Design the sequence.
């Protein structure tokens, strides 16, 4: 895919580099990179890769923007609170560079959906913040033969590495699964500027990999301390832990037990549940034109007739409230998804109309 006149001007600083040139910039335009996690690291990675002119960028994140995110997740602002991170990030990034094609999934990666989510992409960037998900992403990349660019932050320290490059070492080779019991980074504090530092290095690794220049951090772990700027690079080898033949069971803290979930919920109870269960999805199955009239902030929209096509975007592990206009279509969708193995779905009684009547009285009705 060749560059347009506008792109030649936009990326002129890249093109002037003899290691990049027009051929290299075209390689960036033809690339497909998936970023998992649109938090602190993800925001930084996404902005630099978008500016660099990648052709297709995937964004996967099943969480919403919260007040505490605004310290370090620089894509988001006060008005984005309670909005889905992945969709919100894509909308803002599209204004930064309209030449980039964004693929968005407002879901958390699970054992059931990750392989299909990874399939269209060339490189995967891990910007997540918990150990179980990192092992899941690592194993899925091994099975699908995808290169994985890893980044992690904790308090004042950050790390970057490249896994599964040219049959090289993997995350498990560096961190055996015993560390899964350690404190997850999401439970510790982090210096607000650190995600920008580490995310920029991750983005640099992605660009190097696509352009096939420099030396990727393959078999090397780069560590940085933001307080004293101590930098170290530790080399590590591939081990038999890289021999993955199937996805295992993962202790993912974001997966909430669905055994005691109600089959339906009234609007007032849903309003209370949203404040006590941060990992709660709301799936709106109305048509797009209905969604444009009104919708619950933070919900995702998949029209009923597109459920089959987008089924990988519907989590099987996160409690999900299904919404329509009056509660009939949503119930039908739930009945159908139960035949596909879903047991985590809750119907909103009375639908969006009841929500507008009882909870959000300023919401438009139709």
Sequence:
């Amino acid at each position: 895919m060749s560059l347009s006149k506008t792109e030649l001007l936009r990326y002129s600083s890249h093109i002037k580099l003899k290691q990049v040139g027009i051929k290299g910039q075209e390689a960036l335009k033809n690339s497909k990179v998936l970023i998992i996690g649109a938090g602190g690291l993800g925001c930084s990675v996404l902005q630099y890769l978008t500016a660099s002119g990648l052709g297709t960028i995937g964004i996967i994140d099943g969480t919403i923007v919260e007040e505490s995110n605004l310290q370090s997740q620089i894509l988001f602002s006060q008005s984005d609170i309670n909005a889905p991170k992945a969709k919100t990030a894509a909308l803002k990034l599209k204004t930064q560079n309209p030449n980039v094609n964004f693929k968005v999934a407002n879901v958390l990666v699970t054992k059931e959906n990750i392989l299909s989510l990874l399939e269209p992409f060339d490189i995967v960037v891990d910007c997540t913040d918990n150990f179980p998900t990192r092992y899941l992403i690592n194993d899925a990349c091994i099975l699908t033969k995808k290169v994985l660019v890893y980044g992690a932050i904790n308090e004042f320290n950050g790390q970057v590495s490249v896994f599964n490059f040219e049959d090289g070492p993997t995350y498990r080779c560096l961190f055996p699964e015993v560390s899964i019991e350690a404190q997850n980074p999401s439970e510790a504090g982090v210096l607000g500027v650190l995600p920008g530092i580490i995310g920029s290095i991750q983005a640099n690794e992605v660009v190097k990999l696509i352009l096939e220049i420099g030396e990727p951090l393959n078999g090397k772990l780069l560590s940085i301390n933001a307080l004293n700027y101590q930098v170290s690079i530790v080399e590590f080898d591939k081990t038999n832990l890289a021999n993955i033949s199937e996805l295992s069971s993962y202790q993912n803290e974001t997966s909430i037990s669905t055994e005691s979930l109600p089959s339906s919920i009234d609007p007032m109870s849903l309003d209370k549940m949203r404040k006590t269960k941060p990992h709660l999805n709301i799936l709106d199955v109305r048509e797009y034109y209905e969604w444009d009239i009104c919708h619950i902030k933070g919900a995702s929209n998949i029209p009923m007739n597109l459920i089959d096509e987008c089924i990988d975007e519907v989590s099987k592990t996160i409690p999900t409230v299904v919404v329509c206009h009056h509660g009939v279509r949503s119930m039908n969708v739930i009945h159908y998804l139960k035949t596909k193995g879903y047991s985590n779905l809750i119907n909103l009684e009375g639908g969006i109309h009841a929500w507008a009547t009882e909870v959000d009285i300023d919401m438009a009705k139709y």
Notes: The chain has two domains: 31-242, 264-358. Confidence is low (pLDDT under 50) at residues 178-182, 252-258.
